[in-house]
Amino acid sequence: MLSAGSSAAAPGLDASPSGAARAAANAPPTTYVFLNREEAAFIESAVARLIPADTKWPGALEAGVPNYIDKQLAGAWGAGERLYRSGPWRPGTPTQGYQLPFTPAELFHTALAAIDKDLASAGTPFSRMNSAQQDAYLRGLETGAKDLGGVPSEVFFDHLWQCTVEGFFSDPVYGGNRDMTAWRMVGFPGAYASYYELVDQHGIKIDRAPTSLAEDAHGHVTMKPGIPAKSP
């Protein structure tokens, strides 16, 4: 993968933010293993509004966040591997955390099916709305204005937002943060094994090309979607 953003970038690679944006825009399309076509269309459009691209940096869509969400939902996290699953299922308070009987995979499938039905009745798929309409619809989900097949819309929105942020900033080994563009944007160097030569220096800018947990000697990152990015 691309190692850019500092003087340590490999020869021949464009280390500029605009170069990162072009590389992300030209990335191959995602092969989805969990989301169906309609679900993927919503997720792609939604994350593009939650973290939009600008003239300098790619946004969540260009950084591969839909791929991250898809692979997490298809894996152990989506299956609720560490969730308590025996009930009873009763409404809780915000301090009690997640209280629904759905695994993350079930929650997304259920909520996205309800959203698709809701928008079909309105005659305009989310992906065909303009940006203002999309923002308004997402705000409606965030405020809990809809029941999505038994999933409160604010709970779905919270999951979507958290997954979007995780996919944008997590190590590329999990399927998002394509070309480590988010790390270059914030100046995070990634998973270097040692900072020995810097431990006695304070208040300095670390000017290194970012590196992934799964990056080989040639700068290539092998995605490992089976690794859970976090516990449910």
Question: Characteristics of this structure?
Answer:
232 residues, mainly alpha, 7 helices, disordered N terminus
Description:
- The chain has one domain (17-198).
- It is globular.
- It has helices at residues 17-25, 37-50, 65-74, 104-122, 131-142, 153-169, 181-186; strands spanning 147-148, 151-152.
- It has a two-stranded antiparallel ribbon.
- β1 and β2 (151-152) form a beta hairpin.
- With 232 residues, the chain is mostly helical.
- Helix content is 38%, strand content 2%.
- The protein has 7 helices and 2 strands; from the N terminus they run αααααββαα.
Terminal residue distance = 29 Å
Shape: globular
Helical content stands at 25-40%
DSSP, total strands: 2
**Biggest sheet, open or closed, and with what strands and sense?**
2 strands, antiparallel
Runs in which pLDDT lies below 50 for 5 or more consecutive residues are 1-16
Please identify the structural class as seen in this structure. Answer: mainly alpha
Radius of gyration: 19 Å
Counting structural domains, the number is 1
Identify the strand order in the major beta sheet.
Answer: 1-2
- The helix/strand order is HHHHHEEHH
The average pLDDT is: 83
> In what range is the share of β-strand residues?
under 5%
Give the number of helices. Answer: 7
